[in-house]
Oxidoreductase, short chain dehydrogenase/reductase family
Amino acid sequence: MFTTGRTVLVTGSTDGIGKQTAVTLAGQGGRVLIHGRNPQKVDRTISEIKKRYPDADLAGYVAEFSSLDSVRKLVDEINQKEASLHVLINNAGIYSPDFGLSQDGFELTFAVNQLAPFLLTLSLLEKIKASQAARIINVTSIAHGVHDLDMNKIHDENSFRAWRAYKISKFANILFTYTLAERLQDSQVTVNCLHPGTVNTKVLRSAFPEMQGISLEEGARSSIYLASTEDLDGVTGKYFEESKPAESAPQTYDKEIQQTMWEQCERWVGYQEN
């Protein structure tokens, strides 16, 4: 397994797909960094995994992804405490039925689902690169097709529609994946994204209360596969469904849209490349 003996950060790993992913990876013998926004839930998750795998190598980190300062503090803490980071799984995500703003004044769904992992990933990139062979995995959704997107209106309350806001955030995840993969093509870091399936999570229950999704175990399979299989060594810039490469929406391959979204996100999070 690629993850055996390596360090893996799974964001949003105190419940849902992220928790199931963390449990399985802990059982594979990697060092798993548990992240959540609630310290009690982080501690409880670690205790539950330890009961199942007493020898599991675990550490807990707390950060609120609706705050960019909280993300920056998480980066500082990981850089101080962890010698390396071989796999980053950007799993944390929300669906907000009502319009809201993050602590930084951005539309809440986009802030948590796109801006937080964008800043987290780029800020941890030097540590990831230093780990040599490494993987960045973004959990997106099949619900990412967006037409006529005006990026200047992403954070506008008058333009807000809950399901469209979620789709925009997942669309941005895929653009980020493709752009970052291209930028890192001469490194040993691969970047891929995946649709986990229609999983019985808080997101599904909030967006579609009547819909029955697949189990968390089934939903975590693609994340676990992309993190741990040796078959994907060197594979980068791909979108996966059911653990197989698939085609994402046509707009996601538009280089101009990719670049514009990247530049906007850099501006929004205040990130500058060294």
